[in-house]
Specification:
The complex is a heterodimer. Chain A is an all-alpha fold. Chain A is built from eleven helices and no strands. Classes of the chains: A mainly alpha, B alpha/beta.
Chain lengths: 242, 297
Amino acid sequence: MSLLRSEWIKLWTTRTTWVMIGIGLLIEALFAGLYVGLASLEDIGEIDEVATGTGLLLVLMLVLGVLTITTEFRHGTASSTFLASPKRYPALLAKLAAALLVGALAGLAFFAVNGGLALPLLDGREGHLPGAGHIVSIYAGVVVSMALICGFGFGVGAIVRNQVGAIIAAIAFFFILSPLPELLPGNIGDYFPAQSIGSLQGLHSDTEGGLGQIAGGFVLSAWVAGLALLGTLLICRRDVSD
Amino acid sequence: MPQLEVRNLTKRYGRTVAVDDLSFTVEAGRVTGFLGPNGAGKTTTMRALLGLLRPSSGEALVEGSSPVQMSDPLATIGAALEATAFHPGRSGRNHLRTLAAAARIPATRVEEVLEMVELSGAADRRVKGYSLGMRQRLALAAALLGEPRILILDEPANGLDPQGMRWLRDLLRSQAAEGRTVLVSSHVLSEVAQTADELVVIRGGKLVSQTSLEDFTAATGRIRVRAAKLDELGEGIAELGGKVTAEDGALLVEGLGGEQIGELALCRGIALHELSPQQSSLEDRFLEVMDEGEASP
């Protein structure tokens, strides 16, 4: 717990976290407000499409997850972090937990902004609103996906270590490479991050194929766990010389 | 049991050997200076003692066991490695807070060490705006945070002004006087000369010598002589078999003791003005030792 507290302090004592979440929320608020307020009701369609936002905050949370670990190597603070935790893996576990937490927190803030604007606006315009249960499950999926993508970023960052390289690798893998298996026959694509996060956010629940929210969440969690484990093993084995 | 022990430590990076079968020990209650030219392997050795890199062979031990096994790491070892190892966007105080939180050290201790290194006034500024000396003092504050039994400091005098150097020297001396172990690397030899009790000198990753400071700079066997009739005395010394070299108004004598020179002067009725055995300066000795190392690789 003390290591988690340390990581939590690290997150909030540089401007990065504030700026990334702030900008993400601002854009998401503009999107939810303007789109739901101004677009035609036919264009808006289901609330599901609105509730997942623009995806910008999601990308920012992926990058923030990468930064939780790569800044330590970039600025040489890894040495002091691991001096306080010589076995290293407890500090890395704390970092993963902090990444998941900050992602979830951003997800909750997203829910407040997006839900707070889109739901009343849509209701006021007499658009179609599904039942409360459905709405809760959609937003819950979004909150969990923000948390998991931040953890995903941590995993990639721990493996790659180089800040720029890790950011590019994380974005390229998540958003460019991992959607590709969708094109293959069969449902192999469902088990890659891009599809599984869609499932988790409830986007595939009524389309054919596709996993349900819970299953999507498990698939994405498995990716996060696998990457974080690999990254942790690598960092525990490698020398810390920068 | 030595507080720190390096036993047959070897560290290779590819085909480069940074540290080569190095062994030495560091005892509590003294300041041990860790000397060597740039690239001698000082930082690599210190990082191995901190568990930050794994030896290719041999071991680095802290209080008899692997540094990775330390149960209360910040109370065991405090280290200041590089003055640049901070997140530039985080304030000095917050940097210390993250470390304190990790080791369950109370926030009051953060204020204490900030006070000790005289950084309280700048503690809320982002490290980006710190001078090298301020970063160096922040690194020291971090090292002292857990009141560690062992201090490992890599070039802590870099970037300090003369007052800061003085302060650092007093700090190291008092830490050692409290029974703590202090290993401090430096290439500022005069600093080490005024601070260290023990010396570990390495070159090319190998041990050159581990001795006390006195032994390292021990008498050279040369005696400096000044007297009223210097030429006459010089002739007398030469007759007795001493080797004489003139040096701005004085003679440097080798091969004769101070007693013999004094008695000779008395016999000849020459007034002696100075008769002093010469210590070699640490710097001379250091360069000498490095040359010896060069000659016999």
